[in-house]
Amino acid sequence: MRQLIIIGSGPAGYTAAIYAARANLKPLVIASSVEVGGELMNTTEVENFPGFPEGIQGPELMTKMEEQARKFGAEILYQDVTELDLAGPVKRVQLGSGAVEEAAAVIFATGSAYRKIGLPKEEHLSGRGVSWCATCDGFFFRERTIAVVGGGDSAMEEATFLTRFATKVYVIHRRDELRASKIMQERAMANEKIEFVWNSEVVDILGDEAVSGVVLKDTVDGSTRELDLQGVFVAIGNDPRTKLVHGQLDLTPEGTIWVDGRSSRTSVPGVFAAGDVIDPTYRQAVTAAASGTIAALDAEHFLAALDEAGAPEPNADQIEGLPVV
Ligand SMILES: Cc1cc2nc3c(=O)[nH]c(=O)nc-3n(C[C@H](O)[C@H](O)[C@H](O)COP(=O)(O)OP(=O)(O)OC[C@H]3O[C@@H](n4cnc5c(N)ncnc54)[C@H](O)[C@@H]3O)c2cc1C
């Protein structure tokens, strides 16, 4: 049985791996089969990660984090976790290959997914005018005309924040009223750089190498029209990736994994969570990395205490039928 398995290879997972490997815990990172490196693999320039004054490409940053984790002895498997059994002292992690890994502690760092509009051009132009994060990308849109898609609090917050950079911000919303709280609405409506485009749906994003506009469909009469702009911020929600732990770990009302105060301790002893999957608010690479650090340190303390108390042995009856790696 291993000491520690880390699920996820974003900034939270790899940072946890760097700390855990340097603490000699020989962590196994399950990095996923297709999304190795996490959300930053979907972006171009990252200008706000400390230590890179010239900026760094998202994929390059994640490759460096992976290298750093490997350098200290983290083992990395490019597989998906398909099932988890977190109850009891031996945590079982089933992989896409069917194999099962076991550990005394698990760090869960599966991130979250921004909801997409679902347009073919959306992915293609990601990092080239299409964004899901105003804090991350607003700075690239100085003196530009942009749109925020959505009608909730986060759409209002993003739109208001983006007026610091953009000359004009359209808020495109399907209905003729907003879901956002009254205070957020009032703030956005009082901002003279923001113009609301009601009863409208984005049905296409224009541009090949960079966004040049959007096609809007009127949700009342079905007519379409084009709007010239250089950026589209999609603010229609974010889903923490918690499916694997439903029924096993407590969640918060926002849908993130519940952790105890500022720690990474979940509702199950020996299971720690880090990064965007526990964070309904900040969701930045550096906050995810910091959260990975906390999880590694918490896991280290947990394992040290187990060691003192006498580590559990896997029970052969409980693992019958599952191929153990
Ligand atoms: C387009 C875009 C641009 C961004 N730009 C910036 C920026 O400039 N600066 C900034 O600070 N932040 C930026 N962010 C936010 C930043 O990417 C996230 O806050 C950060 O990546 C969160 O890290 P994480 O480790 O918690 O999760 P993620 O990076 O989402 O990583 C989660 C990991 O878990 C893995 N995983 C999920 N399910 C499974 C499974 N079943 N089995 C195995 N593995 C699994 C995924 O494959 C992935 O490797 C951006 C986000 C996006 C989407």
TrEMBL record:
The keyword Flavoprotein applies. It is an enzyme of class 1 (oxidoreductase). The keyword Flavoprotein applies. Residues 3-292 form the FAD/NAD(P)-binding domain. It catalyses: [thioredoxin]-dithiol + NADP(+) = [thioredoxin]-disulfide + NADPH + H(+). InterPro entries: FAD/NAD-bd_sf (IPR036188), FAD/NAD-binding_dom (IPR023753), Ferredoxin-NADP_redctase_2 (IPR050097), Pyr_nucl-diS_OxRdtase_2_AS (IPR008255), Thioredox_Rdtase (IPR005982). Pfam families: Pyr_redox_2. Binds 1 FAD per subunit. Its EC number is 1.8.1.9. It comes from the Bacteria. Its cofactor is FAD. Keywords: Disulfide bond, FAD, Flavoprotein, NADP, Oxidoreductase, Redox-active center. Homodimer. Belongs to the class-II pyridine nucleotide-disulfide oxidoreductase family. This is Thioredoxin reductase.
